[in-house]
Design brief:
- It contains eleven helices and 17 strands.
- 29% of the residues lie in helices and 23% in strands.
- Strands 1, 11, 12, 13, 14, 15, 16 and 17 form an eight-stranded mixed beta sheet that branches.
- The longest helix has 19 residues, at 197-215.
Amino acid sequence: MIFSDKDSTQFADLETPFYYYDLSLLDKTIASCATEADAHKFHVHYAMKANFNPTVVQRMQSAGFGADCVSGGEVNQAVTLGFAANKVVFAGVGKSDKEINTALDNDIFCFNVESIQELEVINELAEKKNKTAKVAIRINPNVDAHTHHNITTGLDENKFGINSWDLPACADMLKKSPNLEFIGIHFHIGSQITNMEVYKNLCVRVNEFAAWFEDRGFTVKVLNVGGGLGIDYHNPDQQVPDFKSYFQIFADFLTVRAGQEVHFELGRALVGQSASLISKVLYVKNGKKKNFIILDAGMTELMRPALYQAYHKIENISKKASDVVKYDVVGPICESTDCFGKEVELPETTRGDLIALRSTGAYGEVMASHYNLRENVRVVFSD
């Protein structure tokens, strides 16, 4: 997505702020992922938490992907938007009884289970419905994803998954739970991972845990390695992630036995570069120590920078060439954390200029809020 003078002219008549989706880029990204996954007969589930805009999700369904859900609402949305129930997986460290029953009623493919107590609950609820629930055990492999602390999920200190020392008790629970069918093991070590060596380490651990279950008489049909593949926030015009290299890591280092399936749960890599948040400059405040650009978009539209200091490239799409000035780019929300970037070099900016915050297709629109009684954020598609 490279913005042109034509874009800024067209956007001038639209009410800001809004998320702008480049559907051609989205389609190109999805197609690349599908092609590279198919080359290894890998199964991809789209992580709906990244972006559950119906237009986006339906493109994932049309590509033949499954759905990775982390709430009962996402399970319902996936089924409503056409995903086959046998391609829907339900993860999450805190599934409520209501959510579990929703998934059971929809006969989903699998629960990714994160505690021994959760196994008990699913077994009890399935028994009441005279059903058998398929489960994969999410294991905490204690693999460092080398990403931001707040989006690391695979260490012993994290709340996610079953720790290795609890696996014997987990195996015992599976054996005495008649309404559970163990189908495999599941991992997810974090998000925005760009160091491919991390995935080699994960493969080693997956191989070890698969062998552990097989040695105890379990048949491991599914190896679900999660997702987490990152995007380049600093260079958003290099847009489609290297899915070929990503999948090749698992093809080279994962031990896959006859009859086993390898599943992935990708989100950010599929949608991250496909959208930008377009905002208008309300005011420019020039001071002795700081120059501020105050936008009509704030943390209510894009939470990531306030939540964990996430970087998004910021562009003035109304001015392509001008004297460069350093600005703190902030929003209108009554919080000091409502800041998108500090000391950002931009062309000299004036009231009414349009600003693009890039790479916001993942965890952008879906995390918008009504704090300060803000309106729903608007959405514009390239078609």
